[in-house]
Design brief:
β6, α2 and β7 form a beta-alpha-beta unit. The longest helix has 14 residues. It contains six helices and 13 strands. It is globular, with a radius of gyration of 18 Å. It has a seven-stranded mixed beta sheet, with helices on both faces. A two-stranded antiparallel sheet has the order 1-2. It is α/β, with parallel strands linked by helices.
Length: 231
C-alpha cells in the first residue's frame, strides 16, 4: 500500500481486539462500547484503520453477544469494504487475537490494536510497518518511563532499582510479520503460555521486535480514572 513518500508493497491485515468485559471500569457492559464523542469507544481506532491507505483488510474480534450489534454498526458506517469478518473473542485477550489470526487466509503483515485504546494515529501504523518491512519480525509503539522504577518482592519490599533509560511502557498498535505472529501464537497454545501482549509471544521465539517511540496520550481506557483522558 502507498501513502505519501512511504511504500509498503505487502498485504496488511488489521485485527481490532474489542472483546473485553470492562470489569475494572465498573460498567454493566463492555468498556469498548463506552460512548466517546457520540460514538462507541472502539470506533476511534476502527475509523483510523479504515481510512489508512496501508491497511487492506480489518477483522474485528468482539463479545459473542455483541456480534450482531457490531455487524449493524459497520453496515451503518459503510465499513464492510475493509471489514472482512466480525468474530467472537476468547476467554483471554490472547485467545481473542488468536481467533482473529485464524480467520486470516493470506497476508504479509498483521497489526494488532486494542479496541479501548482510542488514540491510534496513522503515524503509528506507518512507523511500525516500516520497521517490519525493513527486516524486523515485529514493532511495537510505546513510551519511556518518566519515573524511577523499583522492583519489589511479594512482601512489597524493594529489591532493586533498574536503570529507567532502558524501560518502556508498551502500547498498541503492535505490528508483525504474519507468519511469525501466527507461529508464536500456535506455540503458546501448544505450551499453554499466557502473555500480556503479542510481542511477548514473539520475543519468546527469539525474534527481533523493534520499539517505536509513541506518545504518552496513547492511553488504554481500563478504569474509571482513565476517563479523564477522553475529555
Amino acid at each position: 500500500m502507498y501513502c505519501g513518500k512511504s511504500k509498503i508493497e505487502k498485504k496488511v491485515s488489521f485485527i481490532l481486539a474489542a472483546a473485553g468485559l470492562g470489569k475494572r471500569m465498573g460498567l454493566d457492559y463492555p468498556k469498548q462500547f463506552f460512548e466517546y464523542k457520540g460514538e462507541p469507544l472502539f470506533y476511534s481506532s476502527l475509523k483510523i484503520a479504515f481510512e489508512s491507505t496501508f491497511i487492506d483488510e480489518i477483522i474485528i474480534v468482539t463479545n459473542e453477544e455483541n456480534i450482531e450489534y457490531m455487524n449493524n454498526f459497520c453496515k451503518q458506517k459503510n465499513l464492510f469494504s475493509k471489514v472482512k469478518k466480525i468474530i467472537k473473542g476468547g476467554e483471554e485477550r490472547q485467545n481473542s487475537v488468536y481467533n482473529g489470526i485464524k480467520e486470516i487466509i493470506k497476508t504479509d503483515y498483521v497489526i494488532i490494536q486494542d479496541g479501548v485504546r482510542p488514540f491510534l494515529k496513522e503515524e503509528y501504523i506507518e512507523k511500525t510497518l516500516a520497521a517490519v518491512d525493513s527486516g524486523y519480525d515485529g514493532a511495537v509503539v510505546g513510551v519511556k518511563v518518566k519515573d524511577t522504577v523499583k522492583l519489589i518482592d511479594v512482601d512489597n519490599e524493594i529489591i532493586s532499582t533498574p536503570a529507567r533509560d532502558f524501560i518502556v511502557l508498551v502500547h498498541t498498535p503492535q505490528t508483525f510479520k504474519f507468519e511469525v505472529l501466527k507461529g508464536a501464537h500456535e506455540e503458546a497454545k501448544r505450551r499453554a503460555i499466557i502473555a500480556t501482549d503479542d510481542a511477548m509471544l514473539v520475543e519468546r521465539m527469539d525474534k527481533k521486535v523493534k520499539f517505536i517511540h509513541g506518545d504518552y496520550d496513547n492511553i488504554k481506557i481500563t478504569t474509571q480514572e482513565d476517563l479523564k483522558y477522553l475529555k
